Amino acid sequence: MAEQNKKNAFKKWTEKHAEIWKFIKFSIAGGGSSVVELIVHMVLLNTVFAAMTAQEITNPTLNMIGINSKGYLFTYLISTTVGYAIAFILNRKVTFKADANPALSMVLYFIMVVFTIFANGWIGSAMQTFAADHNLSGNIWDLIFKVIGMIIPTLWTYPCNRFIIHRKKKQA
Fold first, then answer.
1. What is the DSSP string of the chain?
2. At what angle do helices 2-16 and 18-46 cross, to 10 degrees?
3. Whole-prediction pTM value?
4. Is the dihedral of CA 41, 47, 50, 51 positive or negative?
5. What DSSP letter does each residue of 32-62 carry, written as one string?
6. At a CB cut-off of 8 Å and minimum separation 6, what does 23 contact?
7. pLDDT tens per residue across span 51-101
């Protein structure tokens, strides 16, 4: 009986606070996909593409987002694709229960992801410059800037996912 009351209370809360609940699910999906992305990244970087990390890349655009070697490029492309694909599926099916055109959703998501990657590169570079100019170094400052760099994209990724990418068809 107590278990049923908890389920009913939770259901009432999620219905009353639907948008907060969507944001919580979005955050969990993003966190979970980030963990998988990180594991894939580390495994590939330290095994499959380890030898290629010595092959330098001097492309300024790639260097801006932190890609300095062929091994890192391939690792980044694969792990990022895996992470974003998982986040796309979880958010489409679980978080937002979208039923809009999946092909259009994928194109819009791809555009958002490319923008996010380059925006993160620029933001990270700006924060590194700020930290260096203000002599902010050490693990605590690294952690603070990393968290800021992770939070800032949420300002556009949640609204884009919620209102543009993972929409529900309008009911007549």
1. -HHHHHHHHHHHHHHHTHHHHHHHHHHHHHHHHHHHHHHHHHHHHHTTTTGGGGSB---HHHHHTT--BHHHHHHHHHHHHHHHHHHHHHIIIIIS---S-HHHHHHHHHHHHHHHHHHHHHHHHHHHHHHHHTT--SHHHHHHHHHHHHHTTHHHHHHIIIIIISPPPPP-
2. 90
3. 0.87
4. negative
5. HHHHHHHHHHHHHHHTTTTGGGGSB---HHH
6. 158
7. 999 999 999 988 888 889 999 999 999 999 999 999 999 999 999 999 999
The conformational region for residue 28 under phi > 0 = left, psi -120 to 50 = alpha, else beta, is alpha
Angstrom distance (rounded) from CA 129 to CA 124: 9
Assigned token pair, 58:
């001097």
Residue type, 15: E
